[in-house]
Automatic annotation (TrEMBL):
Cellular component annotations (GO), alphabetically ordered: cytosol; nucleus; perinuclear region of cytoplasm
Keyword Repeat tagged: yes
Name of this chain's protein: F-box domain-containing protein
Keywords tagged on the record: GTPase activation, Leucine-rich repeat, Repeat
GO molecular function, one term: GTPase activator activity
SUPFAM superfamilies the UniProt entry points to: RNI-like
A biological process term (GO) from this entry: nucleocytoplasmic transport
Domain of life the protein comes from: Eukaryota
Alphabetized Gene3D superfamilies for the sequence: Ribonuclease Inhibitor
InterPro entries: Leu-rich_rpt, LRR_dom_sf, RanGap
Length: 429
């Protein structure tokens, strides 16, 4: 079959082309030239051996296309789609091992495969993920994922650049401590950069959904997209009618006549399911949108406060107060020119240091948007003349030769990089 190059020529589009195993991988590699940065080879049959061969070849291409001797800049793939390719844990680990070396690779899609996160493989997988620059990872529709393996992954996950994690339709349930592992991760600083978590179409149940929403409300300020739709419990996780002691005072359904024709195993199940549906409807459609809106607002607040403070902070905290001799000369000059009215002025730099810092903080118009650690980091960063010099040199080099529209975009990128580097891009408490 012919290779399809989309109009944006950095993409090789090869889904459903019949690539099988190692032979298929060797047929793909020649299509990846230096101008290619995105690869879609979904719906083939590469399997474990083919995937490992492909990414071994890609590692070689990275070296070839990035040759300093030939005056070539760094090359890499930005996005790889390996959906529905019969990938197992070994293949997935191989993909992530490549991602550790390719700093360009940001988006990896491995949906619809046979990834299990087996306990003997998960440590290597999560270590590779933590060491990569991946910002978006899709594991959607990997229905054989081991709950224990995912619990282990969530406990070790510390991928500082990961912004989006997609785990929808993975047949996940609330068993084996999975909900607690998700909650613990979301409540920790390890999830600081995660903005989107998709868990739609699993079996987390009303209780699991509620715990996750509670965690976002109380302990997470960065998640702005959270998918929890279609998460009814598995039928055996609901309390069936036959397991309820009719003589026991506590009845989860309420007081009723068990001999009434309207009650029985099926009606009991329907009542429990209806109650769970009401719980999830409240959590997902009423509580959650307000919490996610709060997080968006808080992220915007700290970003605006940091950017607004940057210039006045650099000016004030790097200013050098006049010496006694300079002050005396200034006064003598003013008097000699008969300009006594100009002698006055507010001598800001003679105020106590803590007062000066407070004034600078208030130049943001939102001084309490900063956590104490964020404010300390900002104050130290802008007070350094070496940092000021480096920032100026970086801006000059990035802006050189740019057109007006390009300059505006470059300035926006520089500001975003500065916010991320100092961790002033996310709300902290």
């Amino acid at each position: 079959m012919a290779v399809i190059l989309r109009s944006n020529t950095d993409l090789v589009y090869l889904p459903d082309h019949g690539f099988v195993g190692e032979e298929g991988a060797l047929r793909i590699l020649p299509q990846i030239t230096r101008h290619i940065h995105r690869l879609d080879i979904s719906h083939n049959l590469l399997g474990s051996s083919g995937t490992l061969t492909l990414f071994k070849g890609l590692s070689t291409l990275c070296l070839r296309h990035s040759s300093a001797e030939l005056g070539l800049g760094m090359w890499g793939l930005k996005e790889v789609n390996l959906g529905n390719n019969n990938l197992d844990d070994i293949a997935f680990d191989g993909v992530l091992a490549y991602a550790k070396k390719d700093v360009w690779l940001k988006r990896v899609l491995v949906h619809g495969n046979d990834i299990t996160l087996d306990e003997k493989n998960v440590n290597s997988i999560v270590n590779s993920l933590n060491g990569s620059h991946i910002t978006s990872l899709s594991l959607v529709n990997n229905t054989s994922i081991s709950p224990k393996g995912l619990v282990r992954l969530m406990g070790l996950l510390d991928a500082t650049e990961l912004k989006q994690l997609l785990l929808s339709a993975c047949n996940l349930s609330s068993e084996d401590g999975l909900i607690e592992a998700i909650v613990n991760y979301l409540a920790s600083s390890r999830s600081r950069n995660l903005e989107s978590l998709e868990l739609n179409g699993n079996h987390l149940g009303g209780i699991g959904v509620t715990k996750i929403v509670d965690c976002i409300e109380s302990s997470n300020w960065t998640i702005t997209t959270l998918g929890l739709l279609a998460n009814h419990s598995l039928s055996d996780q609901l309390v069936p009618f036959d397991d309820v002691d009719p003589d026991h005072d506590h009845d989860p359904i309420g007081d009723r006549d068990h001999n009434h024709p309207g009650f029985g195993p099926d009606s009991d199940y329907r009542l429990l399911r209806a109650e769970e549906s009401r719980t999830m409807d409240h959590q997902i459609h009423r509580r959650l949108p307000e919490i996610l809106d709060r997080n968006r607002i808080l992220s915007k607040r700290i970003r605006l406060a940091a950017l607004k403070t940057l210039v006045p902070a650099r000016i004030i905290l790097n200013a050098i107060p006049l010496s006694d001799e300079q002050t005396a000369r200034r006064i003598i000059y003013v008097i000699s020119q008969d300009r006594s009215c100009d002698i006055g002025g507010f001598r800001l730099l003679e105020l106590p240091e803590e007062v000066i810092h407070l004034i600078v903080r208030h130049t943001s118009d939102d001084p309490w948007a900063f956590s104490e650690s964020q404010w300390t980091r900002l104050r130290k960063e802008v007070s350094s003349r070496d940092n000021l010099r480096k920032a100026s040199e970086l801006a000059n080099s990035r802006l050189r030769g740019k057109l007006p529209d390009e300059r505006r975009e470059t300035m926006r990128e520089l500001k975003n990089d500065w916010l991320r580097k100092g961790r002033w891009d996310k709300w902290e408490r």
